[in-house]
Amino acid sequence: MSDQIAAIILGAGKGTRMKSDLPKVMMPLAGKPMIRHPIDTLEQMGVKKIVVVTAPDGEMVRREVAPHLSCIQEKQLGTGHAVLSAKEQMKGFDGAVLVIFGDNPIITKETYQMAADKVKEGYAVVVLGFRPADAARYGRLVMENGELKKIVEFKDASDEEKAINLCNSGCMCFDGKTMFELLEAIGNENAAGEYYLTDAVAVARQKGLKCTVVECSPEEVAGANTREELALLESFLNKRNNDIFETSLVRADFVAVYAGISAGFCVGSAVAAL
What we know:
two-stranded antiparallel ribbon
C-alpha cells in the first residue's frame, strides 16, 4: 500500500561542478527541475509523505517541492547525518522509507516498489544495487545466502571482493520502525569525520536485523554531477519515453487488429445464421 511508503530525498548539494549558481537539484532536466522527477514518480505511486533535505540557503528548493515537507541540514556531515535531519518530519511513521538522492532522478516506480516490498517482507535495510559494464571504483555489495552481508568500499576491498560486479547505488529503503535507531548508532570514525548512510547495513547486522539488495539497471541509478552527466540522463529519459511510446503503439495496433478480427467473426457468424 502506497500509504505505507514514505520518502526522504537528499537535496542539499550545490551546483559547483555544474558551473551554475542554481542548487544542483534545480538544474533543468527534460523541461523541469531535476528534483521534480523523483517527486513526480513518487506521487504517481500515491506516496504522500515526502521530505526533502535542503541546505540552509536552499529556499529555492523548498519552494519548488512545496507543499511537500522539507527540512534543513545545518551542516553537511555526511549522508547519514542528512537523513537524520528529517527525523522530526518522519516522527510516527513506521512503514517503508525510501532514501534517495535528488541527483539520481530517473529511478522507476517499479524499482521503488520492489524495495518497499522487501521491507514488508521483514528486511530492515534494502539497498538498490546495479551491475555496471565496468564496476570501476564503486562500492561492492557482498551477498551471502540471499542477504546483504556488507557494503565494502573499493579502496577497502580484497581482490575477491573487487571481483564482485554488484555495486552500491547509494539509494536505500528502511523499515521506519528501526530506521532512526540505526542511523543514530552510526559513528564518524573516518578520515572525513562524516556519518555515512551505508554504515547502516553494518549496524543493522550487528543488531541481528536482515538486509538485502534490489537490483536495477545502471541507467536507472545514474547520477548527475556535471552538465555532461545531465545530458546523458536526458538521453536515458528520451530513450525510455520512446520505448514506452513504441510499446503503446504496438498495443494499440494489437487492440485494433483484435477488434477487427472480433468484428469480422461476429459479422460472419451473423451471416451464417441467416
